[in-house]
Write the C-alpha cells for this entry.
Amino acid sequence: MRRRSRNVSLAALALGWLVCNVASAQETIRVGSKSFTENFILGEIIAQVAEQVGEAPVDRNMGLGATAIAFEALKAGEIDIYPEYTGTISFTILNDGNVTGVDAIREQLAGSGVTISDSIGFSNTSALAVTTAVAEQLDLRTISDLKRHSELTGAFGPGYLDRPDGWPGLQQAYGVTLADMRIIEHSLKYDAISQGEIDLIDVYTTDAKLQRFDLRILDDDLGFFADYQAVMFVREDFADRFPRTWQALREALVGGIDNARMSGMNAAVDLDGDSTPAVAAGFTGASSGATGDIRIWRDIAQHTVDHLYLVLVAVGLAVVAGIPLGVMAARLKTIGRAALVSVEVVQTIPSLALLVFMIPIFGIGQSPALVALFLYALLPIVRNTYIGIVGIDPQLIEMSRLLGLDRMQTLRRIELPLASMTIMAGVKTSAVITVGTATLAAFIGGGGYGTLIVRGLALNDNELILAGALPAAIMAMAFHAAFEMLDRVVVPRGLRISLGQAG
Amino acid sequence: MMISFDGVSRRFGTTAAVVDFSCEFASGKTHVLLGSSGCGKTTLLRMVLGLIDPDTGDVTVDGRKMQVSSRHELNDQMGYVVQEGGLFPHLSVRQNVTLGAEARGWTVERITERVNVLRNLVGFDDDMMDRFPVELSGGQRQRVSLMRALMTDPPILLLDEPLGSLDPMVRDDLQRQLKRIFQALGKTVLFVTHDIREAAFLGETITLMTDGQLVQHGAFSELAQNPASEFVTRFLRAQDMPANWKRYF
C-alpha cells in the first residue's frame, strides 16, 4: 500500500507540473537577457519600460546561459524580446559575416518570426586586452604585435574559441597563435588577469572593469572585429501584440544609450555593487521595488521551493524510470545493455549543451530543465539497480524459482529487496548530484538556486553567489541525511543485520 | 515417486560430468549418491530438479520426463536443501519457510498450521522463527532449510551435501535427526554426500560414483561385502581409516 500511494503522489506531482505550464501560457510580455551585466541591465530596462506602459504583465527570464539558449527561446516564442548585438546576429545566428548593419540583418531575418530594432545607440565591440604593465613591458599596441608573443596565455569567454567572430577568425586574419588558451567565465576574467594567471583576455568595449583593472585594449589594426550595435531582438509579432509597449521601448531605447552611458551603468553594477534593477531604474525612472536583505531572503525562500521541486520531480521520475531500466539491463542482454549504454552516453553530454538541445523541444523554463535533470539523474539509479541485481548470488534466484515463485514474485520478494541497498545508494548519489546540477537550470530560466548564482556572477557579487551556492550545498547534505533514514525503511532489516548495520 | 536415469550423459565444455548413467531410485526410500567432489553427483541432482538438461538420455520422475523447459510441472513435487542452507538473508526464518506456500496462495491458517508441524519435526522454538539467517548457527540454518524444503509437503526431497560445512558434533546430531525424519515421512530422498559413514548411516541404497560414472548401486552391506571393483574397496577403506588408525601402528 505504501508503495502504491508513493506512485500516486508522483503522478500527481507530474500532473501538477503540466497544469502549471499550461496555465502560464497567458498573454504576458516575456523579457529575456543573457547572463552578463550589460545584457542584464538592458533586459531589466526593457522590462521596466514595459511595466511602466502596463499593457500586459511582464515576465522576466533573465540570465539565459548563452546566445544559443536566448535565441532558441526567442525563436520558440518562449520569450518575446531580449537585448542582442548586430555582430552576434550576423556571425552566430545568421552564420553570414557579410550581412552586417541593422538594415541588412533585418532584411535577412524577414519572415523568420524574429526581427531587430534600430540601434540602442552604442556598440559593444569585441576587443582583446592585456594589462598595461604587460603592454608596456612587451611593447604591445596592436593585435598584430601579438605575433611576436605566442608565449602569452589567453583566456576567453565560453564559446569564444569556436565562434567565427572570435578566436578562429582572429587567428586567420592576423596569423596569431597562442601557446596556452583557456576558457573562462566572463565575470572571472578580470580577476584572473589582474592576478597575473593569464596575460590576454577578450573584452567588450563597454566593460566597466577595463578602467578599474588597468587594462589596455589592443588596437584592431586590420579592422577584423565586426560592429556590435546593441539592438532589441524581438519577435516579429511583438509590435502587433503590444503596440504601445513597442512604441515606448523604441522611444526610450533607440539611440537612447551611448557607449559612455552604458559603460557607466555597467560600472555602477559591476564595480559599485548597485543592483541591476536599481541601475535600470536610474535610466527608466521606475521605482526599483524592494531591495537589500529582505529581497534576498524572500528570493532564497522562493528559490528553495523551485530548487526542491526540480530535484524531487527529476529524481522521482528517474526512480520510476530508472529501476525498471536497470532491471531490464540485468535481464535482457542486448536491449538492456543498449539501454545502459544510452543512459551512459547521455551522461557524457555537457550539461549546458543538453539544456540547449532541450529548448527547441520544450522551450525554456522548468520543463526543459526537468527533462535534462531527469536524464542526468538516471545513470546512477539505472547502473546501481543493474549492479545490485546482477550481483545477487545466483543460487538464491535458483532457489526462489524452485520454491515456486514466478519471475515477478522473485523480482519483488527476492531480487529488489536484496539489491535495495545498492539501489538506494544509486538514488542517493543521483539526488545529491541533481541538487548540484539543478543550479544550471537557471541558464534556461528554470529557476532554483542557480538564479542567484547566475545573477551573482553577472553582478560580480560574491555574496549573491554564496546565497545560491551555500543553500545548494546544505540541500545536498539534507538529501543525503534523508536518504540515510529512508534506508531503514526500504532496506530489509535482515539485510542490514547481515551487513553489520544492525538497527 | 520413482526417479530414474536412463543412459544419461552431460558435458560441461571439455569435461564429462556424467557418462552414460543409468539407475533407478525407488519410491519412499532414502538413496545416497556417494563420491568424491567432482564425480557428477550434484549434476545428477540438478537434472532431477530440471535446472540442467542431459545431453543424451532421459531423467524421469514418476514416469514423466524432466526437462528445463517443463520444470515447473514437476517442481511442486520436490523440496531442495543445499550446503550452507541457501537461505534468503533479508527474510526471517518464518518468511524463508513460508515463501513457497505464500507463492502458491495458501491461507494464513494453513500456513500457520504447517509451520507448527515442521517446527515440532525439526525441534525449533517459536521464538527462533523471527530471527534472521545471520543470527543462526550452521546447524540451525540447515534445519530452517529443511523446513523450507518440506513446507509444501513434496513427495521428493533432494539434499546436496546439507551437512557438509557443519562441525562433527552438530553433524552427528543432525544425521540422527534426519534419519528419524526420513523414516517418519516416507519420502523419496536423494541425498548427496562424499562422507562414507554418513552414507552408510542414512542410505537404504548407496550409489557410488567416480568420474561421472556409476560404480556400484546397492545397500551398504552389498558394497562392503561384494565390491564391484577394486575402486569400491579402496573408497570404503580410505574413509574408514581414521576410525581404525591404531591398526597401522
In short: The longest strand of chain A covers residues 58-64. Chain A is about 60% helix and 10% strand. Residues 16-25 of chain A have pLDDT under 50 and may be disordered.
